[in-house]
Amino acid sequence: MSAADIIETVQYLTFKLDEEVFALDVAKVREILEYTGITKVPQTPDFMRGVINLRGSVVPVIDLRLKFGMSATERTVNTCIIVVEVELEDETLILGVLADSVQEVIEMEPEQIEAAPHIGTHLNTDFIKGMGKHDNRFIMILDSDKIFTDEELYTVQDVG
Amino acid sequence: MIEQHIVTYREEANELLAELETSLLELEENPTDEELIGRVFRAMHTIKGSGAMFGFDEVAQFTHEVETVFDLVRNGKMTVSKLLLNLTLRARDHIKSLLDASVSGEESDRAEGEAVIAGLKQLVPSSPNEPSPPPVQSQPAPDAEAETLKTWRIRFKPCPEIFLSGTKPLGLINELRELGTCHVVAHTAGVPVLNDMNPELCYIYWDIILTTARGMDAIKDVFIFIEDDCELKVDLIDDGGTGDTDLDYKKLGDILVERGDLSPMEIQKILGLQKRFGELAVAVGAITPDKVQSALVEQQHVKNVRQERATQESTSSIRVPAEKLDLLVNLVGELVTVQAHLSQTAALHGNTDFASIAEEVERLTNDLRDTALNIRMLPIGTTFSKFKRLVRDLSQELGKEIEMETEGAETELDKTVIERLNDPLVHLIRNSIDHGIEMPDVRLAAGKPAQGTVHLGAMHSGDSVLITIRDDGAGLDKEAIRAKAVERGIIAATAELSDKEIYNLIFAPGFSTAAKVTNVSGRGVGMDVVKKAIEGLRGSIDITTAQGTGSTITLKIPLTLAIIESLLVRIGPDYFVMPLSSVEECVELTRDNIEEAHGRHLANVRGAIVPYIPLRDQFSISANRPDIEQIVITNIHGTKVGFVVDSVIGEHQTVIKSLGRMYRDVRGISGATILGDGTVALILDMGLLLQSAEALEQGGVSSAAPM
Questions:
Q1: Which residues on chain A are in Cβ contact (under 8 Å) with B680?
Q2: Of A40, A48, B20, B287, whose CB is crowded by the most CB atoms within 10 A?
Q3: Cβ contact B457:B471 at 8 Å
Q4: Tell me, which fold does domain A10-152 have in CATH?
């Protein structure tokens, strides 16, 4: 593999939410955990599932299915928490993302990726960096910096 | 910082010296050029001035002498001569060497300096006006030796006829005693039997071990008048440096050899026998017991001195960056969590050996936790003393006479807490001075002393510290507060409020009692900001006041922000912890009780009516409600409130973890902690929970506004 390839090709971690395949830049992923008990913080939106204990640190977990308008993630044997790092105003935030199952790490060339269409995804395209084609499937590449720095996450409405 | 200034000064001085040199050389060509003379004078003046400022006292003093002479030249009282220029150039070189010596730490050549000065003084035409004493740093430069305590061994062997000259050896030894810690051993071996003794002769000689800050000269001065009538040997045996970290002093044998009482050969010979060296040496007859005794005294003396020094050094404090302490506290926090897990596992296994180890670990962890937290504790006094200045300036500005009293300055609080207390305290004190204490004439008219008092006190109370700001001013005007609150729409005009509730209105957002805005307290920050800051520290604020006699504001601040004692409770599947400091008791709540209260959230606790908040409803937890619930009765700012939970688990050491950015706006939850089994429990902020519950009941009059 030449150096140029490394620069241009990005590795992605793919995971499933319901039947759809999503991908995150591997560089943003810190680790993948098995599903563990999540403590719900009262008076917060549903997609903010709560907090977990990550080796002594309290880490928030969000349910992307709820955020994307699907039904809440049900716990199965394949359910995982993907721990990602997000830069927000000079601060590195650690947070967990629920996934129905984690698939694999794939490499995608820039030419494999197209801009996301504005209709037909049922998703807020602001959060999607692009659509990747891999093995005749479409993979939605998430823009982690946008999703996890979304205003909504940090301005908790009082639902109590 | 200082270090940097010193470097800068040296650079500057070197430049000035270079300039001085050129000026002097030019002056040699044009001895009457006044501008050149001025330049020389100014260069020296600057070197002197900044030198004194940055602690180069020797440079400053020396330069001053030279400058004095040039002042005469400048004023036309002296002419520039070849000799003067030579001396000045020498002086310039000497200044340079003084500067260099301060870098290398070497001793500068004082003789050279004195020679130059003497030479210059000879040049000065005798005048009735002696040059004024140096204005800069008139104290003699401290003798380098004076700084450290050194230990000397003095052997004082007067000649036998010493008494004939009227000298009292005892007096001399007493003089030595005045110099410092002193051990004296008399060598009496030379005293003959009574029959042979001549009472007019001195048969005794002394070894004196002296620890003193004075130098060799001071010691020799004691013997100055009998120098020729005695044998005097002064040796430095401990230079006071920290190089000798070894507490032990030389071996006895070495001391004796050094003193010349024994030769190394003899020592070797004696060491061949296996006995204590001192006894052996005597037994062999090589030396007399008193010599050994004397050497032993020396050994002991120096050991003591070194030990003292070592203790001093070890008890003195060390500076540690705050981050290191934070890291330590974090690690201890994690240890506490692991320990909780260990205890839980041990209890589960029922193995007594395992359980006893777990208990031991628990005890150690608790000690470690206390110690680690204690390291970060600082006395609050440093903050208090800053306020003295504030009070002084403010009272002058406002034309009031105010005295500040402080109490409990030694009370310790976590460093972070103290830092974050500063601004609220400044605000409260400003308030007391501005709004509380009246003008002197008003005070006199009210029969109070003209001088007002602001009392700032701190004291421990359980796991909290109470800080009180008390003034003997006008107190709060209940009606004025009420009127204003109504005017600002904070309360309804018909609202029935207790006195306490009225006073607490001053903490409401958008409330300011000052009729006019002064530049002292009217800075757009209200008491609500103070309250928020105190609550941010998990503390509370309370006010008591009596109109005409003053008000007292009490802040209750937790000792630390890192680890708290708390009560662990459960609601449905979720665990919560409540700070134990505000918990008073737990009572049962049965279905019957609920029915008796006809839907009102009131409990009857030994005849007293206590309102309660069902946390299950507040948090929308849907799990099944048990038949018997528990009410945790708490005391929040003097109000008794119950919080209903499913069950009370017990006390818990809570290591406070931040919930992070995502949850920073959640009201009623102040953080999280990790339980022994690894699950996360949330820390309840009861004060805020009460507020939002009140807000809900009042139909959202002031709905929970985002912070």
A1: 37, 39, 50-53, 58
A2: B20
A3: no
A4: OB fold (Dihydrolipoamide Acetyltransferase, E2P) (2.40.50)
